[in-house]
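If you are new to this repository, start here. Below is one unmodified record pulled from the training split, so you can see the exact layout before writing a loader.
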Amino acid sequence: MSSVFQVSFRGFFRVSLPTVSPSFRSTIIVWAGRNISTTRQTSRPSRPSFSNMARTPVYFLSHGGPNIMYDTEHPAYKKLQEIGKEITEKVRPKAIVVFSAHWQAEPNTVEVNTAEMNPLIYDYYGFPSHYYEHKFPNVGNKALAETVLQRLRNAGINAQGVKRGLDHGVFAPFTVAFNPQTNPLSIPIVQASLFDSDDPDQHYKLGQAVESLRDEGVQIIASGMAVHNLRDMFAAMNRPTPMPYTLSFDKALKEAVEQKPEDRQTALAELLKRSDARRAHPSFEHLLPIHIAAGAAGKDPGKQFWTLPQGSMSWAQYRFGASPYRAHTLGSIPCASRIKIGVEGLCFFIVGYARTRNDLCICYSSPFQLVPLRPT
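And here is the target side for that same chain:
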């Protein structure tokens, strides 16, 4: 007589399964939600369509200077690598739309790069010669660029297509996050500009205009710095601790981002009025990308998941939206999270949201005995 295995997933679903016969050694997949079925997994499934994927999170990257590409001992180097792996292995977007502090168009205009091939723009001075020979292989996508332009125009934003390369606000952090040898990026990159203005709400609206792309498998990244004062950089190097404004503004930015989504826009706008704002950012172009990121987040919460106040800079990194699920797989079927399970034998089992948002996927393999489990 076969026993029954029951799993309750966070109170939303309850599924009963017969214990698997030891002789049945293929993977069984059970999908619960809108329907339930069992399937013998005999071949690798096709990758799910992006239209059914859970929406991508939004990232704000503190990108540093071009030297981060070679400073492998810097703590931010490792963190950018981790973010890159998170995006390629867990989020797995079909394209990236990126906003950089180093591209401002006109006060009331946003420009979008429509080029299919993106040369690098070495927009820095005084570095060794190899910095100007650096390569970061990448491609654009005209169709996506046109989609971005249309979304902006639909939101009442004057948007123009141009042909341009990638500035170091993109290729410097991307070289670390998406190292061509260890974590190559095989999807297109479309860069868009900021407005040439200090209006935080204007940039928040810019983010809101592209929010819907997240439901289509597009990764939105905003690149700037949480604190960015080059004027004090050399003086700050002689200090044993970060500049006072670095610490105070870094803390204030975290508090603003982590406000309730309905209060976040106002809280972020108030940052520009702080007494330490012009010390932390003598000009606001490195701060405004986080307003874009927050706008693109919609009603999703924001979280500072790492920071490093250093001299007159802060390397804080932010994510808006749900933390990407752990892309555990069994029989090549991706699942959202691992559940700790007591088992007889050495096998573990995986339960989690499938890549389609509305289904719960339960994956397990014979010939092991299933026993009750609890989500972690």
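Two things worth knowing about this chain: The chain has two domains: 4-50+326-374, 55-320. The chain is about 25% helix and 25% strand.
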